[in-house]
Amino acid sequence: MNRSAIISVVTVVLDDVLALEKTIQSVLSQNLQTLEFIVVDGGSTDGTLEVIKRFQSRIDYWISEPDRGPYDAMNKGLFKATGDWVIFLNSGDRFADPMVLSRIFSQDMNNADIIYGDSIADYGRFRFIRKAGPPTGLWKDMVFSHQSVIIRTSIIQEDGFQLQYKIGADYEMVMRLFLSGKRFYYFPEPISITEAFGISHRHMFSSGREHYRILRSMKTLTFKEKKYHLDKLFFLSVISAFYRFIPKSLYLSIIKKINHKNLVTL
């Protein structure tokens, strides 16, 4: 049993006063006594710091200073983590429910290095479940949300996130762990609720291109794999251009229709 395992939750934020509090409330509502909460702020000036100070008695460590981007901030939190496991929950994102970490760590995780699960994509007007794919599919892309990935702190704390990647450092880390033979465990429930329109969503083509660059640096690609990614990049370039010229309401309607089978109640 893993009831005594300490779980470090790292939240990074920059000028997100309206969304940060719901993330903090979600973390603090977890029914888990062995939880460490770390907040890294990039030097906000919009009132975010006041929100952090309001909850500082229940935050184990926080800092507010300029950084070199979200992965630099995530590294700062990672290097301060003292837990056995670590999960990165962005400002605005939440845990799926107050019991999810308790359900995960009521199971024997001694043979796991990485725990991954489903996520719920929140588009404001609707939500749908994004089913996690198996790590064998990582050659195609990030097959689960990093907010729904819990990693043994000891296996990533030395190297952290690679800052040369501005959008895909989380993908590089997970791919690195997979290729090194680390053990993945699938938890068949949503772990997190993630806000849509994040960096990788807003820059789909750039994200796909960086993921392809990461993949090529880590393994020799077959003809099939190269063709898959080149076709995908062409598709993403078309979709990105298309989205720039249609109203957001139409864009949301298309996403809702595509994912209608996985919609969940708000």
Compact overview of the structure:
The protein is of the alpha/beta class and 266 residues long. The protein has helices at residues 17-28, 48-54, 70-80, 100-104, 169-179, 199-202, 204-218, 223-244, 248-258, and strands at residues 7-13, 35-41, 61-64, 85-88, 94-95, 114-122, 127-130, 149-152, 184-195, 263-264. The chain has 9 helices and 10 strands.
Overall morphology: globular
Strand content: 15-25%
Mean pLDDT: 93
Radius of gyration: 18 Å
The CATH topology is: Spore Coat Polysaccharide Biosynthesis Protein SpsA, Chain A
Approximate helicity band: 25-40%
Given as residue ranges, the uncertain stretches (5+ residues, pLDDT < 50) are none
* CATH class assignment: Alpha Beta
Order of helix and strand elements from N to C terminus: EHEHEHEEHEEEHEHHHHE
What number of structural domains do the residues give? 1
Largest sheet: 10 strands, mixed
Structural class: alpha/beta
CATH architecture title = Alpha-Beta Complex
Query: Gap between N and C termini, in Å?
Result: 33 Å
Report the total helices: 9
How many strands in all?
Answer: 10
CATH superfamily: Spore Coat Polysaccharide Biosynthesis Protein SpsA, Chain A
